[in-house]
Amino acid sequence: MKISKALLTVAYVVLFVSCGNKNEFPDIDPGKEEKNFAKGADIGWITEMESNNVKFYNSAGVQMDGIALLKSLGMNSIRLRVWVNPTNGWNSKEDVLVKAKRAAALGMKVMINFHYSDSWADPGQQNKPAAWVSLSFDQLKSAVNAHTKDVLDLLKKNNIAVGWVQVGNETGNGMLWNEGKADQNMSNYAQLTNAGYDAVKAIYSNAKVIVHIHNGWDNNLFRWIFDGLKSNGAKWDVVGMSLYPSKDNWSQMTEQCISNIRDMISRYNKEVMICEVGLSWDEEAAAEAWLKDLFSKSQAISNNKVLGVFYWEPLAHNNWKGYTLGAFNNAGRPTKALNAFK
User: Fold this and answer.
1) Residue 175 is part of a domain; what is its CATH number?
2) Which domain holds residue 320?
3) pTM of the model
4) 295, HSE (Cβ side, Cα atoms, 13 Å)
5) pLDDT per residue over 301-335, tens digit each?
6) Residue 182 CB: number of other CB atoms within 10 A?
7) Is residue 7 domain-resident?
8) Range list of H helices, 56-185
9) Could you list the residue ranges that cross the membrane (predicted)?
């Protein structure tokens, strides 16, 4: 055993030295490093909030940097959305880099979430970027590939170790409508997914590619999408889910979600990531109970097949942009909901 450890040490040193350029580091594979559960947050709004003088405080009322505060509350990962050409610059690749650098400096892992839009992409809208509107389908696939590579290459050149990448956001009916609308052309949706998948692997070969669907409790939706992707030759590493219950139905919805997770693992032999969760900030007792239950049941699934849980924009407070499912109160302090991350 001592000889084996020595040889491994030497091999690591040789690999480290051989990298030469500091940008050419080995990719981090979060599935192999420590096998720890990702406890994360989507923080896409943070730079915009800071520009509007929004402050964040710990439970004692001490002002803190928002990302550092989340880490102090037990989080080890962040999720960042990317828009192609946003009108105000927020969530552009440059803005994403600023946030990714801050998280990386704190030793936190990074998930990148491509919306493939100039603004929000979700179950109700999957609008093509303005610059892509007149493209042919083949050109659209090339644009997806080039945009994905461009953003990830910028991050890699700045030494950001990206562990997971979403190719689309809540694509329960495909993306880049109408060409990639799943109920109209599942084959096109699969081809666009592969354009993103191949781009990710070209830059971060060990990053895990996520296909992310809303309503994590809805097994019929997940089977329809992933059966369709599979039958059309799509590639993905991780099934991504969102889960947004209420204080009254969280127990039932969690049971349905866990059942769906088990089916996804069995049916497709894939890992699962719960990419988004949230519950009203002023129902903190219910949120704490729900999240502790979700963490417990997710981590109890064998072979570490559930990779983690990300809270969507927990830092949002004081009705920021009308969003009320954060996990900070109107004084800018964390609610009990985040106790689950400790």
Assistant:
1) 3.20.20.80
2) 30-341
3) 0.90
4) 21
5) 999 999 999 999 999 999 999 999 999 999 999 99
6) 22
7) no
8) 66-72, 93-105, 137-157
9) none
